[in-house]
Amino acid sequence: MSGSDGPEGAPNGPAARMGFTAGQVVLEIGVDEDADSELRTAIEAAVGSAMVGDDFGDVADVVVLWWRDDDGDLVDALVDGQSAITSGGVVWLFTPKAGRNGHVEPSEIGEAARTAGLSSTKSTSAAPEWAGTRLVAPKLGR
Questions:
Q1: Which domains does the chain have, with CATH numbers?
Q2: Closest residue by Cα to residue 91 from 42, 43, 26
Q3: pLDDT digits over 65-111, tens only?
Q4: Cβ neighbours for 54, distance < 8 A, ≥ 6 positions apart
Q5: Which residues make beta-bridge pairs with 120?
Q6: How many helices (H) and strands (E) does the chain have?
């Protein structure tokens, strides 16, 4: 497979640009019929396996959290997501873009992330209807 302008799962596709790599275990939370199927397929192609669900009994390398404004308490969801990843793992929070039903304000994401002990390291247009925010736990032992 070519690395430039290739299909969704190609090395330079959207999932690879977000840091998804072969062999990662990805836990997906909050998926519903409005989740972007092309992005989901691209993530699975990048890691080389299907994403696991809430019933997964181990820790994951990455959590993909699909979140809408009316889904409940974002802080709780982020704390739960963080507890499901390995040390150094990443939470990708996907929220509807501005003007779309279920949009979450960036200030709300930032506040919820800080309260959950996470830092935002990257924001991206993940899909036509979805924005992505990469969240990580701060490094310890400076």
A1: 14-136 (3.40.50.150)
A2: 26
A3: 999 999 999 999 999 999 999 988 999 999 999 999 999 999 999 99
A4: 27, 29
A5: 135
A6: 4, 5
DSSP H/E element including 131? strand 130-136
Q: What angle do CA 73, 119, 18 make, to 5 degrees?
A: 95
The strand pair at 60-66 and 119-127 is best described as unpaired
Q: Which H or E element spans position 63?
A: strand 60-66
* Residue linked to tokens 């192609």: 45
Residue 9 has pLDDT above 80, yes or no: no
- Separation in Å, CA 84 to CA 8, 10, 67, 90: 27, 27, 17, 10
Spell out the residues 6+ positions from residue 100 whose beta carbon is closer than 8 angstroms to its own.
129
Q: Measured between alpha carbons, how far is residue 16 from residues 6, 20, 56 in Å?
A: 11, 5, 23
Q: What is the pTM of this model?
A: 0.89
Contacts of residue 140, defined as CB under 8 A and 6 or more positions apart, other chains included, come to none
Cα torsion angle, 21, 24, 27, 32, sign: positive
- 3-class SS at 1? coil
Neighbours of 110 (CB within 10 A): 15
